[in-house]
Design brief:
five-stranded parallel beta sheet, globular, alpha/beta, Rossmann fold, 19 helices
C-alpha cells in the first residue's frame, strides 16, 4: 500500500513554519515539501532553523538528498548541509581569512568564474595549497584533494578499468579518476571542486593529455562511468592545481597547460600582509595571546625581558628578508626564494614545547632554535647548492648573534654540517 501524499496549503516559508510538525513527521513528508516548494527561504528555514537535513537518520535520508539536488536550494544552504556531513565536511571556518595578495585572489576568483582551470605556482612556503582550499571551499559546495605522485597515469585523472575476481570469474569495474568524480558530484549537486596538488611531481604532459582535450571541448567525453554515463567537463567543475617552482620553472612546463590553464603566480607577501599572517598564527596559540608571555634577553651581564610574541615576529622578518633579499651575509643578493608559511610550524612547535608540561617549558630560547632546525632549515637545504648552503650558515650565525633572546644554535649546526658534507663530496669527486 503506497503512502498517501500530504497536502500543504502553502509551500512558502510561512507554510513551512505553519506545517513544521507535519513536515518533520516523516522523511517522506519532508521530502515532498522540499520537492514542491519554489521558495528558497522555505528551504533555508527548514535547514538553518529546523535542521531538517539531519532530522532523519541513516543512509536513506531522502530529504537531505532532495535538498542538495533541488534547484530551489540556495548555494550557501547546500554548503551548510554538506558541512554537517562527516563524509564531506571541510570545516570551512578552520581555513581562516584569505591572506594572499589581493591581485592573486582577484585573478584566481575571476579565472574560476570564467571557467578556466587554475594553476597556482611559486616558491615553497607561499601558501598555494592553503589558498587553493580556501578558494574552492568558497566557490564550491565541496572539493576533493588529490596529491600528484611520479606514478600517476591519465587514469588517476579521468578513470580506468580494473579487473576484479568474483567467485573465480574475472569482471571489469570502471573506476572514475579524481576529475571524473568531480564531474559526477557536480552533476548531482552543482558547483564542485578538484584540487590537484603538487602537479609537477607527475609527468604532466602524459597525465593531463585527456584533460587538455576536455578543457578545450566541453562536449568531449573523458570517461564512461560504471553506470554507462558519459562524463564531460562543465563549468560546474572547478579545477585548481598547485606547483612548486623548486620542482620546475614555468618555462619548462608543457606549452599545452599554459595555453589552457590560468597561470597565477603566488610569490611575495608585503610586510603588512606577513604581519597579519603572524598575528593569525600567534593568536591561535594560548601562550602568545596578548603580551603576557615574556622571554629573557641576555645582554652581556645584564638581562631584560621582552614579549616573546614581538621578538618572534622580529626574528621571522629578519629571517625572511635575509633569505629573500640578502643582507645577513657578505652578499646583498637573495639566497633563494622562501615564503612565510613555514613560520606557522615554528609557532605551533614553540607553543606546544613551551607550554605547561612541554619539552622546553623552561628553555624557550632553545625551543625556537630547535623549531627552525626541525621545520625551516631542512626545507631551505632541500634544493640548495654548496654556495647557497654556505650563505645559509652565515645567515643563521648572524641571526643567532642579532637575537640573543633565542638560541638558534641547532639551526646553525645543522646547516654547517650540511655544508661540510657537501664540501667533502666535492673534494672526493675531484680526487676520483
Amino acid at each position: 500500500m503506497s503512502r498517501r501524499e500530504q497536502t500543504y496549503d502553502a509551500l512558502d516559508e510561512e507554510g513551512a513554519r505553519d506545517n513544521i510538525s507535519t513536515i518533520k513527521s516523516s522523511d517522506a513528508s519532508a521530502k515532498q515539501f522540499v520537492e514542491q516548494t519554489t521558495d528558497p527561504d522555505a528551504i533555508r528555514y527548514l535547514v538553518e532553523d529546523e535542521e531538517i537535513d539531519r532530522h532523519f537518520h541513516g543512509h536513506n535520508n531522502d530529504t537531505r538528498e532532495k535538498i542538495l539536488r533541488s534547484e530551489t536550494t540556495p548555494f550557501d544552504v547546500k554548503q551548510t548541509v554538506l558541512d554537517r556531513d562527516e563524509n564531506y565536511n571541510r570545516d570551512r571556518d578552520s581555513l581562516g581569512t584569505i591572506r594572499v595578495p589581493d591581485r592573486v585572489e582577484h585573478n584566481a576568483r575571476t579565472a574560476l568564474q570564467v571557467g578556466k582551470p587554475v594553476v597556482l605556482y611559486g616558491p615553497t612556503g607561499t601558501g598555494k595549497t592553503h589558498f587553493a582550499k580556501q578558494l574552492l571551499a568558497e566557490a564550491c559546495l565541496d572539493y576533493e584533494l588529490a596529491t600528484a605522485t611520479p606514478t600517476w597515469t591519465p587514469g588517476d585523472i579521468t578513470g580506468n578499468i580494473q579487473p576484479e575476481l568474483d567467485d573465480g570469474d574475472v569482471e571489469y569495474r570502471r573506476e572514475a579518476g579524481c576529475v571524473s568524480r568531480g564531474i559526477q558530484q557536480a552533476d548531482r549537486y552543482g558547483e564542485w571542486g578538484v584540487l590537484l596538488d603538487e602537479i609537477t611531481r607527475a609527468d604532466i604532459s602524459q597525465v593531463f593529455g585527456p584533460l587538455y582535450t576536455a578543457v578545450e571541448d566541453d562536449s568531449q567525453t573523458i570517461f564512461v562511468d560504471g553506470e554507462g554515463r558519459d562524463l564531460q567537463l562543465t563549468d560546474d567543475v572547478n579545477i585548481v592545481c598547485t606547483m612548486n617552482m623548486s620542482d620546475r620553472t614555468v618555462n619548462e612546463l608543457d606549452d599545452a597547460i599554459t595555453r589552457r590553464f590560468a597561470m597565477i603566480e603566488l610569490r611575495g607577501y608585503e610586510e603588512a600582509d606577513r604581519r597579519k599572517l603572524y598575528d593569525d598564527w600567534l593568536d591561535a596559540e594560548s601562550m602568545f595571546a596578548g603580551e603576557g608571555t615574556v622571554i629573557s634577553i641576555h645582554l652581556g651581564e645584564e638581562s631584560v625581558s621582552a614579549p616573546i610574541r614581538e621578538e618572534l615576529i622580529k626574528l621571522f622578518e629578519a629571517h625572511h628578508k635575509g633569505i629573500n633579499e640578502g643582507g645577513t651575509t657578505d652578499e646583498d643578493t637573495p639566497i633563494t626564494e622562501f615564503g612565510p608559511m613555514h613560520y606557522r610550524d615554528v609557532i605551533q612547535f614553540v607553543g606546544v614545547a613551551c607550554g605547561e608540561g612541554g619539552a622546553y617549558e623552561n628553555n624557550r630560547a632553545r625551543a625556537v632554535g630547535e623549531a627552525f632546525a626541525t621545520y625551516v632549515a631542512p626545507r631551505l637545504l632541500n634544493t640548495a647548492a654548496l654556495p647557497q648552503i654556505e650563505r645559509l650558515a652565515d645567515h643563521y650565525q648572524t641571526l643567532d648573534e642579532e637575537f640573543p633572546a633565542f638560541d638558534l644554535g641547532p639551526a646553525v649546526e645543522l646547516v654547517e654540517r650540511q655544508a661540510e658534507t657537501e664540501r667533502r663530496g666535492i673534494a672526493g669527486g675531484a680526487y676520483e
